């Protein structure tokens, strides 16, 4: 994505609005600190010699971030040296250690997306013993070798047997429920994006935080920052973002799934920001200061209302179709809904789907949908039975659209849906793999559909059990007309 230096001034203005808005709803945040897990990646060069890096790496390395004036509302537990360390293990270790050392001062816990915060919790689950050891002895883990991180932690890490004992007590029993509020008892909310593709992490975040409010503060992309949520404490399903008209030039392509595809003969009619209508769905089209011209971001938004004259939008989904075997087209929102519906059957087993991805398996004829599930079984003595997991396959099929079900029932063009349950920690490995290939930790999103051979091999090597839909889903021609 092209960007220009002055873009940071504009983006900084958007960032600077977040805390004044939050302060309207959660007072006293200037008396505590934010534990935010933020990461950078190393830079690369394009063939023409331009620097290429993830947008947030650019921001954390900018003078805007590094030389920010002291602001009591934006004090982080993570030192800049830890955020700016390119080794993701050392960076995470240092940030977690500082978060533990300052645990009583933490008023909010966050990351950019929900997946980043869950990765941090996972890190705590794996490394709490070493972290507690460092706190007990006051000696930093020798695996932290970055000199600037070591130097700055030397000023923060003081031995405290009391704190080490507290961490051991909270982490050693293997019970991770409410771990966030147990370790950071003054946390008032989690600051993570859980709208769009991140919505499926809400139950897991609720489990780790005991249902703390989830604040989705802004809506942004590498191409352009768009806007902010003026009611950050609203429920994730009710979040609307107000687009800031000064961030770029915004136009909207009316989104009508039944309309014929765009062609030269039927050029799109774009609607200006001021002219969008409440209730309608649009695809976001941006023209940026850095040079993108009428660029389709791929996000579908729905107008929910206005703040003064500024329209507000609910994030509906990214446009891309995820799965298709025949004429069926399943997008991210449909797949998410199907996983949600099927996972209701797991409730009585106190089990939830913590991660999922999918694959259109066309090696067999007919092809079929494969859904990889990583489960959180809270009570291993009551784990879901094979019969229930087969019923989950069918429940997913029942949730999918009529074209899919027609393919399954009438046309036999789609085979029974398959669920492959993978070992706990598999999606963590998937993220590690993506990061090793250049993905940014901050901006990483679990792909909801995979087809890259090494990723498939990784997933398949972690499969514990597989289940197929035991029956055909419901479908009738009448139903299809109204669907
Ligand atoms: P990236 O450029 O990798 O940071 O990804 C930007 C994309 O992430 C956006 O175009 C959206 O699809 C998604 N995204 C960013 N912010 C939000 C949000 N607040 N809610 C839902 N999706 C978001």
UniProtKB/TrEMBL annotation:
Start and end residues of each GH3 C-terminal domain: 334-452
Domain named GH3 middle: residues: 241-318
Name of the protein this chain belongs to: Indole-3-acetic acid-amido synthetase GH3.1
Family to which the UniProt record says this protein belongs: Belongs to the IAA-amido conjugating enzyme family.
Superkingdom per UniProt: Eukaryota
Matches recorded under InterPro entries: GH3, GH3_C, GH3_M
GO molecular function: acid-amino acid ligase activity
Keyword terms of this UniProt record: Ligase
Gene Ontology cellular component annotations, sorted alphabetically: cytoplasm
Keyword Ligase: yes
Pfam families documented for this protein: GH3, GH3_C, GH3_M
Claim: Hydrolase is one of the keywords in the record: no
Transmembrane segments: none
């Amino acid at each position: 994505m092209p960007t220009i230096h002055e873009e940071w001034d504009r983006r900084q203005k958007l960032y600077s609005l977040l805390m004044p808005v939050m302060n309207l709803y959660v007072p006293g945040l200037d008396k505590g600190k934010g534990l935010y897990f933020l990461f950078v990646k190393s830079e690369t060069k394009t063939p023409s010699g331009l620097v290429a890096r993830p947008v947030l790496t650019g921001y954390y390395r900018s003078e805007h971030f590094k030389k920010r004036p002291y602001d009591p509302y934006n004090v982080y537990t993570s030192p800049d040296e830890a955020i700016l360390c390119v080794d993701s293990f050392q960076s995470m270790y240092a940030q977690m250690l500082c978060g533990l050392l300052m645990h009583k001062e933490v008023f909010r816990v966050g990351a950019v997306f929900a997946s980043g915060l869950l990765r941090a919790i996972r890190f705590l689950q794996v490394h709490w013993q070493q972290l507690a050891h460092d706190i007990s002895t006051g000696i930093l883990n020798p695996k932290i070798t970055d000199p600037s991180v070591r130097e700055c932690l030397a000023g923060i890490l003081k031995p405290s047997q009391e704190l080490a004992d507290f961490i051991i007590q909270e982490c050693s029993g293997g019970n991770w429920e409410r771990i966030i509020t147990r370790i950071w008892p003054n946390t008032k909310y989690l600051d993570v994006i859980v709208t769009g593709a991140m919505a499926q992490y809400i139950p897991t975040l609720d489990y780790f935080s005991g249902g703390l409010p989830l604040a989705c503060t802004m809506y942004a992309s590498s191409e352009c920052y768009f806007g902010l949520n003026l009611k950050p404490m609203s429920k994730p399903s009710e979040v609307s973002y107000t687009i800031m008209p000064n961030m770029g030039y915004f136009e909207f392509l009316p989104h009508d799934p039944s309309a014929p595809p765009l062609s030269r003969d039927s050029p799109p009619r774009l609607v200006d920001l001021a002219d969008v209508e409440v209730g309608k769905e649009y695809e976001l089209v941006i023209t940026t200061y850095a040079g993108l011209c009428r660029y389709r971001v791929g996000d579908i938004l729905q107008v929910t209302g206005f703040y003064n004259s500024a329209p507000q939008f609910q994030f509906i989904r990214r446009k891309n179709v995820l799965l298709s075997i025949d004429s069926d087209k399943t997008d991210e929102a449909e797949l998410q809904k199907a996983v949600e519906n099927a996972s209701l059957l797991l409730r009585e087993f106190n089990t939830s789907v913590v991660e999922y991805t999918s694959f259109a398996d066309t090696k067999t004829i007919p092809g079929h949908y494969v859904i990889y599930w990583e489960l959180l079984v809270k009570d291993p003595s009551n784990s879901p039975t094979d019969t229930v997991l087969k019923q989950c396959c069918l429940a997913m099929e029942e949730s999918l659209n009529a074209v899919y079900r027609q393919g399954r029932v009438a046309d036999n063009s789609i085979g029974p849906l398959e669920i492959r349950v993978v070992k706990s920690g598999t999606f963590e490995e998937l993220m590690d793999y993506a990061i090793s290939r250049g993905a940014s930790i901050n901006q990483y999103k679990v792909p909801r559909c995979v087809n890259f051979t090494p990723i498939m091999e990784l997933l398949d090597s972690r499969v514990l059990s597989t289940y197929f839909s035991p029956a055909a889903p419901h479908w009738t021609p009448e139903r299809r007309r109204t669907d």
